[in-house]
Amino acid sequence: MKQLAALCIIVLLAGSAFGGEKPDLKRAFVDGTGEGWRALTENDFTKVNSEKDTWSWKDKVLHCTGRPVSVMRTKKQFTNFEMVCEWMHLKSGGNSGVFVWTTPASIERLTKAGKPGLPSGIEVQVLDLEYGGKKKADWYTSHGDVFPVGTQMKPFPPVAPNGKRSFPSKQLSKGINQWNHYYVRAINGEVRLWVNGEEVSGGTDCKPSSGYLCLESEGSPIQFKNLRIRELP
Prior knowledge:
This protein has two helices and 15 strands. It is mainly beta.
């Protein structure tokens, strides 16, 4: 009888463990550690159309002056991957971004021209809460828009009025002088963004779905740190 009672208790405990609510996969703070993850450092990037002093690495923090409007790219192209980074705007109304699957043709164009400009790819926007001042528009948000620039993507809802941007489902970004955390998963033509631990936006049917990873300088000082990446099959 004692053995039978013990067996019943084990069964009940197992049932309670597996019969509970499923974990919310939309809430996941990924810190970029574990098998397969590696840091993205100064040696992983190269200038495209920025000035020599636009980007600088100091004490494991990447500093960007915001001038000129330009990007730097990874030396390597990526297809399926996930990445994390932390960013912080230093000026109210700041603008920046992370470009995923940036096309080699647009990089070549910018490199040859040597002038301010941005490439083609999927942009994961990095926008301060005060961008646009009091005159807020309805075609963007400051909480993690994802959209194609010169490429193709079917945005996840909610969708911007122009039908191109995936608006974030929640407003989770922090203001100036505060670190924000992005986790980006880009696999099989689909991009998903988590802001400060929660999935908020993204899109599918991205074309192309391979290319460079770029960081954007767009008029305002910003800092990045803890840039990490893991390539996926």
